[in-house]
Design goal:
With about 170 residues, this protein is mainly α. Helix content is about 45%, strand content about 10%. The chain has a three-stranded mixed β-sheet. It comes from Heliornis fulica.
Length: about 170
Amino acid sequence: IMLHSTLALSLLLIAVSSNLAMAIKKEKREPQTLSRGWGDEITWVQTYEEGLYQAKKSNKPLMVIHHLEDCQYCQALKKAFAENEEIQEMAQNNFVMLNLMHETTDKNLSPDGQYVPRIMFIDPSLTVRADITGRYSNRLYTYEPQDMPFLIENMKKALRLIQTEL
């Protein structure tokens, strides 16, 4: 009987440890291709339409980042954005997030032209918040790496405006 229970116990241990190994492996996720380097812990939506749907459903604002792979300003902004813990945390928890490398057909997303990088906020009521602008009068929705505190303020503003206006 002793041998039998030892065998059963070792089989149980093997089963538990292989499940544990699988759980650990699952925890260490593959970097998500949709993040494109803007933040692998963030859940990104794939399309603008999906973003609008999720924003309405979750009652969270949608944040749309327009960028291009070969744009040095976009790369610099992406690095600052990805390294900023407060931005990453807010993006993970309070926003529906989308980064796009092509223009949408929605002209409301390019109120002052189609330049990159450009960050726009859309309310859960599906209103484009053209009133949430960056620091530059010639490109209202652009941010530079040193503007992260400003972007944080605008993210907070996008969250505040939902509560007060809906």
